[in-house]
Design a protein that fits this description.
It comes from Thiolapillus brandeum. This protein is of the alpha+beta class. It contains two helices and eleven strands. The protein has a six-stranded antiparallel beta sheet with strand order 1-9-6-11-4-3.
Length: about 200
Amino acid sequence: MPMIQCFCTPIWVFKVARHEAVDNELTQLIDQMRKGKLGDASGVSRSNQGGGWHSDFIDVRNIPLFQKALSDAMQAIAKQIGIRPNMSMIVNGCWANVNHRGSYNRLHTHPDSMFSGAYYLKTPEGCGRFVAHDPRPQASCITLPIERHTPLTSPAYNHLPQQGEFVIFPSWMPHHVEENQSDEERISVAFNLFYSN
């Protein structure tokens, strides 16, 4: 029997080729920010919990290798979902997240943008998964008597991020990042963007 999948929520995972140069660019910037050489070293409080560090906003023009990698990923997404070719991608938020042992990012969404995501530049073993939650408010009203979860029935999607990888999703999708249980830091650079002509 044919099945039509309506109102699907896409999540894209892109591994950046030769990501080491992007990682080095971001690591140098984050080190300077954490030392207070670029703004307030104390960071800000958003979804970060348990003492995790969230930087002030980063101007993507100051990280050209990252900007190019993000642009390449978003061009592939735009083509796949049919964004009009005359539209320009505008990054309206970019920041670093550093989570040490015991810290995490609580459940949240990203308002005032179309797509959001994170680039992971340090992902030690045990650093925690990215967890996307079913955005349909009525989907959990009754539990189906399923034998196993599938993408059609699961209330959440778990992804263990890897170094040099983008995870990109619609900004309205609720998500969190699990507690880092490693003795090393989990480091990512998150972003919001939209399209305009």
